[in-house]
Amino acid sequence: MAGDGSGTAMETLLKLTTPNWADGVAGHEALASVKVAGAVATKAASYMMELANHAQKNAEELDRARRAVEKYIIGTPVLENHYLSCTDESCS
Question: Taking the model in full, what pTM does it have?
Answer without folding.
Answer: 0.48
